[in-house]
Amino acid sequence: MRLFCKRFCVFALIFTALAAFSPLSAQETTDADSNFNLPVVEKVLQNGLTVLILERPGVPVVSFSLMQPVGAQDAPKGKTGLPHMLEHMMFKGTETVGTLSYAKEKPILDEMDKVAQETNDENEKLQPSTERLKALADQMEKLEQEHHQVVVKDELSAIYTQNGGQSLNAWTSQDATNYTITLPANKFNLYATIEQDRLSHPVFREFYSERNVVAQERRWRTESNPEGKLSEALESTAFSASPYKDPAIGWMSDIMKLMRPDAEAFYHQTYRPDQGVLAIVGGVQAKDIIPILEKTLGQVPNPTVPPLKKNWTKEPPQEGQKTVHVYFDADPMVMMGWHMPNFPHADGLALDVLSDILTTGNTSRLMQHLLFGKKLVTSISTETGFPGDRSPNLFVLSFNPAPGHSADSIVSAIDAEIADIQNNGVTQAELDRARRNIESAFLWGKISTSDLAQDLAYNQAVHGDWRYVTRYMDMVRALTPDDIKKVAAEYLTSENRTIAYLERPAK
Amino acid sequence: MNYEFSILNFSSFNSKFKIQNLKLKGILFSAVVGWITVFLPSIGFSKAPFVPETAPLNIQVPAFDVKTLTCGIKVIFLKSDEMPLVSINLMIPGGSILDPEGQEGLGSLMTSCLRNGGAGDLSPEAFDAALENKAVDMSASVDKESFSAGFKCLSRDLPEVLPLFADMLRRPQFNIKRFETDKADSIDEVSRLEDTPDALTRVLFSKALLDQSPYGHSASPKSLSLVKQGDVLKFYQAHLGPAGSVLEVTGNVDEEKVLAQLESLFGDWTAQEKLPDYAEAKSLGPVIYFYPKQVSQVFIRFGVLGLKRHDPQDIPLSVANYILGGSGFTSRLMHQIRSDRGLAYFVDSVTVPFNIRGIFEVIGGTRPDSVKEYLTVMFQVLNDFAKTGPTESELQQAQKSMVEEFAYNFESPFALADYHTSLTFNGYPDDYLQTYRDKVKAVTQVQAASAASAILSQKDWVLIVAGPEELEKDLEAFGTVHKVTSIFDPLVSNP
Lengths: 507, 495
What we know:
CATH architecture of the largest domain in chain B: 2-Layer Sandwich
Mean pLDDT of chain B: 88
Strand content of chain B: 15-25%
CATH class of the largest domain in chain A: Alpha Beta
Radius of gyration of chain A: 25 Å
Number of domains of chain B: 2
CATH architecture of the largest domain in chain A: 2-Layer Sandwich
Helix content of chain B: 25-40%
Strand content of chain A: 15-25%
Low-confidence stretches of chain A: 1-36
Strand order of the largest sheet of chain B: 6-7-11-8-10-9
Number of helices of chain A: 20
Distance between the termini of chain A: 36 Å
Mean pLDDT of chain A: 90
Strand order of the largest sheet of chain A: 1-2-6-3-5-4
Structural class of chain A: alpha+beta
Shape of chain A: globular
Largest sheet of chain A: 6 strands, mixed
Number of helices of chain B: 16
Largest sheet of chain B: 6 strands, mixed
Oligomer: heterodimer
Distance between the termini of chain B: 43 Å
Low-confidence stretches of chain B: 8-45
Shape of chain B: globular
CATH topology of the largest domain in chain A: Cytochrome Bc1 Complex, Chain A, domain 1
């Protein structure tokens, strides 16, 4: 999730209260800054669940974002991808949704766990027995057929879909897990009821067949995609100690031995109402829905087990440039990443602006000089906050070399551009243009109800305060050209950099 | 970049209604609150939830104000004053189907040069600066059957930005240096289509299904390399103009002032060349094209010719498609292939009409050792559906979903205006939005089954597969397999 976007999206609503505001110049906007407020109604339910409600009268839909501040980096050792697998499991229903009889189903699920554990144990042996593994696979298949008789496939999705649910989806990043849906505004009660049930009585059925789906997802997104492969290589090379070194989807060998009981234990440790955030944006009224929320989602109990303690390993300073080469049947691509601090460190904000100055629009430095000028690249872009922004992360620059130019010659040209900023800084005009781009992104970027809901929930769950959504703009306005020069010099150095090259394998 | 992982790849599901942003003022709706209790199954450990539900929303479609400029451009206004923002989008008939043979990709390159090549009295750099200093996002692009150009800006900048927009469309410079850069970038972009199974199968699918028609053509590094600056200018002069064009103006605007300015900027624009008539495309099927690529996830596209735009079967087929593969988790294909067997992360089906017969496509992917099983299940689901269509209960559920989802179109005035404009551009009746839900509700089981059967029973299907070399043998069980070594070569057809 690009840090930048995440904090920007809700800006548009400012205009509901601030019609005279114009983002054209700092001078004109200063007066308006103090009025930046979103009319968000905050309510902490009796079980501790934080609810953020933004009313948008006249909009016939309502969007929900239920966010837990738990992500891929919280996975236990040897179980990378478990938080993402758990996210898939949350769509499998409850003790009453998705089943003909949970009483009949439960012993089958328990038996499947045993077979899966025995399979893992056999695979861990120095010399696993193929006969034994075959017998266990047959046993699992038999259990799956038996289980099939009592399952009602995808019933949770069907209920939402039949009621006009759109964007029923979820994502797991390194930092957080998010569940979204947009419903017709008159379906609020349906959401509250279904989600109370989903959080109180989830059943992780079809766990072991879903492992295969996740494996397919990994093959599709990462292993068969040049950009996916390259970004995974960048991540796992640039980080040597931080949990960001492991991909959010998990390593294949871990995915294929994930266990349902692990997912259940992790669920109880991490999906706690008193740590979660629910953001609601759309055609509803807070006064009407809060009593309903208290009676439904407010009743979801907090688990009795102690919450997971965050204990992330800190990435030590990098002391020399790292490189990694990925071979794939595709034209060359390059990604490079410099370590940078995570939000809300002021240097991170200056790097957000530097990113804009370097590659946003035809007038940006690298587009002007390297793409249109020297024609060294056919595309070039930068981003900040990769692959998450709860721990120190990366400033990433990606480019496709133009045919006939070596990747290294382009890296040298980029180095010269960066050196120019390190030595001579950027102009006030460049900073102003970047700021206007950022302000425009506020307005046009993500202003649907669902994006608004996600932004509010993300900033509250990950950064501890939804107000960063609007505060971010003030923080950017405070930056000067010297701040940009300083961060370019401090962070964009070769010893702090990792370069990942994608190359076609020699035939 | 891929560093979030979702339960479902929604981007691959081509929803008929695409929504982006903002609140809609001026659209009236009212919800009558009635309490209906829906009982969910209750046979388990915990008590089944009761779902109190409200009555349906009464959504009213806003009145779009439609004017016509002297040159013939139809202007559609949707006013929304909640934010000081304006979005302008012009759709012009034509598109990549107009690319001359041997210069495929010319239309796309022309639109890049239109935006990047300078306009009016401004050099490319000065034009870029004039836009970007105001954070104006202006672009031009091409689709199969249309050219589009548009921008987004603050409403107070509109009087200054509209002349730049008119300059781009009417007085482009096509600067030679920018032309060379755009051409090189386009060639590189096209050559990278062979890098991912998704993109390369998309090109092959179009070529195989829409054979001998400009609808099936696609650019190659060679066809682009033959384009000269003069070709871009000639193409522009012949094909960009006001005839049949629709301009959408949405947001915080003074309609009269904008209309007067548009008239002064575009009123004397002369009509472009008349569009040729296109013959129906022919499928090369039944045939399998296999592109060997060393990847761990095989990409599979299956398809047949679909419907022509405005075909009476359009809505019945949309409903049938929703049930078959268009509704995500609840579709038949998704159930059988993903949920039951874990054979895919995603599988979906889409129906896309053109001015000639369009396409019906099933898209998915699986691991190399399960391609045979995936295809067997997919063909089984398609055959069953072709024979018997949806069940009455599937039909009712789909209709309910599609009717309820309609509210989603009204989340933002900008997205609603985009949708309405594309309907107008494509000749749909003015009351399409008002009558859509009733038309969906009126579809009978027999109609949906018959629409599905007519499409799925066609024998000249094409199957495109990209995956490891050793798959070729598995594919032979399903038909004649032709191996493809470059997506840019002509396809070999069955003898």
